């Protein structure tokens, strides 16, 4: 286990926002909430998966809802703690480790207020290896770990516990509840043993995010193109460079849905998103698609969350391979194009 | 305490559907569910309020959602038990008495499966003295008894517990959850002591419903006009008699909302409903309004739930005074015309 300091929080927020593929929450807000918690309660310990005892009780923490809304309806910092304590009370025994449910500017750091205030370690892992918009879109679903119980809390102190049949129902009912709470909330769920966490979750993603965040800062000082450096770090490629010429968005139902149109170099690019970027098309042809990562970066290599896309921004669109688990038939059924209603076949990035 | 037999269940269902003012659920479904429970587990005891010990733990049970949907998405019978047990687990001690949250064809009988299967008495009382569409529209809200915790369960065995600040938030989040469950569910909430139940709830409404149901059967045999007989039993009046010529309805958001137009005797009548009938207008003028009771009956005195209104029905529209608590300034603020977005002033029926 090692301590996470303020510097590393900044690197994690930036790197995780890149891996969050447009979703996973705003890195600035995520960093502020985590820094505030560390400032108030002291440093947080991060544990590697191999350090977790078999009989540990691990639970995930993450944002749910439309990130667009969270920019204005700021988290109070306490809702993750409320959700976590509600879950723990429902389970009836102490949870020993917290885990980011997904990688994201906000979501990789969402467990930190809980970890800091309750003195629990955060696991260096997550359940997606990126960000996805729905509750069931986690490796847990592939391995039979249920979102049961699932606690949701808002910044007003309201909380809800779900006891549901499967992770798709968890999504459906947690989403409804979140809409009632004003379209953003914090959730805690996926209780699992230490052994399950080791067997199931995607390891090292906090460290990966920190490395990526550090890389961005380093290459900037070296006057290297950060977008190319990030692409090559992730084994991906820059798919498009240009200017945002149109953005359409809606909060329906409880997601930040929309699309952006980009132009540059005599070509056009279309990005479709549901919290995360789902599909990138160049001149009408799909060039990257879920579950692969589609990241939008400004010229400094700063990740641009989907909810921050706006007319006139000059950006690069980057594609990178997802975790291999998502490329299996079960993985693709859960998070591939058809899971989002698309009819195109998935064509893996990165020459696999 | 006295036993309720199958005959009385029939009377309660019919009488409660009249008092349910178009809402409160379908009396046929309500009766079937209650009869099935009594058949399976044996008779149910009904307790008068004065028979409840001070330190009893009382909880309410009722349907939530759009009654239109419940006609097709039938209750399984077990969801009230699931909601009740979820609430009891959350509270952490045994609930001793169950209470209908509102009067209604379905809702007066909603506690019966719980009472029958768990051997608990049902209180001869409710929290509205009629039916209203929203969670906060109960005398409990006037007296500071909170819907906290509140459990919601669906026919698939999913359940949710809310822990919220006030009864308006309970409505908001329980409604969201219910929409996720498919627009109908059963809820259990308003835990209170026996003393509180005695001080707060509206007494004798199961007995009243049974009397009213019995009256309808009796006057039919005596060839008396049942609608006039019901009106005079309730101290109300027949406001309109005619034919339904148009019905508009929508399930939005999680309610059966709509309006019906009636014609007869050279006049027209408009009924606006949100689960329950809210306003009746004759030739454009409001003749009855929430919180007073507006009941639609066919020529046999059979109550017609708002979700069963259809073109061509010949019906009588009856108005009757509500419980005096709803006519106080606090009562009107909670359930009067303005609570439903109307600008008309409330003019009490029955010459008060």
UniProtKB/TrEMBL annotation, chains A, B:
- Domain S-Me-THD-like C-terminal, by residue range, is 166-349
Q: Which SUPFAM superfamilies match?
A: CV3147-like (SSF160991)
* S-Me-THD N-terminal domain segment(s): 8-163
Matches recorded under InterPro entries: S-Me-THD-like_C, S-Me-THD_C_sf, S-Me-THD_N, S-Me-THD_N_sf
Q: Note the coiled coil stretches, chain numbering.
A: none
The organism's superkingdom is given as Bacteria
Q: What is this protein called?
A: Hydantoinase
């Amino acid at each position: 286990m090692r301590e996470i300091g303020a510097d590393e929080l900044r690197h994690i927020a930036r790197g995780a926002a890149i891996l969050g593929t447009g979703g996973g929450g705003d890195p600035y807000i995520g960093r502020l909430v985590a820094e505030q918690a560390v400032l108030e309660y002291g440093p947080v310990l991060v544990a590697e998966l191999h350090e977790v005892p078999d009989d540990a009780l691990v639970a995930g923490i993450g944002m749910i809802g439309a990130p667009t809304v969270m920019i204005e309806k700021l988290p109070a910092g306490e809702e993750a703690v409320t959700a976590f304590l509600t879950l723990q009370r429902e389970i009836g025994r102490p949870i020993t480790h917290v885990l980011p449910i997904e990688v994201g500017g906000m979501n990789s750091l969402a467990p930190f207020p809980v970890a800091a205030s309750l003195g629990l370690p955060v696991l260096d892992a997550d359940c997606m290896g990126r960000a996805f918009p729905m509750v069931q879109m986690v490796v847990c679903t592939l391995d039979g770990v249920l979102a049961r119980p699932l606690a949701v809390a808002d910044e007003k102190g309201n909380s809800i516990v779900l006891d549901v049949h499967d992770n798709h129902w968890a999504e459906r009912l947690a989403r409804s509840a979140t809409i009632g709470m004003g379209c953003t909330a914090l959730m805690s769920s996926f209780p699992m043993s230490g052994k399950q966490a080791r067997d199931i979750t995607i390891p090292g993603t906090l460290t990966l995010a920190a490395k990526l965040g550090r890389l961005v800062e380093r290459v900037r000082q070296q006057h290297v193109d950060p977008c190319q450096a990030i692409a090559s770090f992730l084994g991906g490629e820059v798919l498009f460079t240009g200017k945002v010429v149109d953005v359409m968005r809606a909060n329906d139902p409880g997601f930040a849905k929309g699309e952006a149109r980009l132009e540059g170099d005599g070509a056009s690019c279309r990005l479709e998103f549901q919290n995360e970027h789902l599909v990138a098309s160049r001149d009408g042809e799909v060039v990257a698609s879920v579950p692969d990562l589609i990241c939008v970066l400004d010229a400094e290599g700063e990740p641009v969350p989907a909810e921050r896309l706006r007319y006139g921004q000059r950006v690069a669109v980057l594609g990178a391979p997802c975790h291999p688990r998502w490329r299996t038939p079960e993985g693709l059924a859960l998070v591939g194009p058809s899971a989002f209603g698309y009819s195109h076949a998935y064509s893996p990035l990165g020459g696999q």
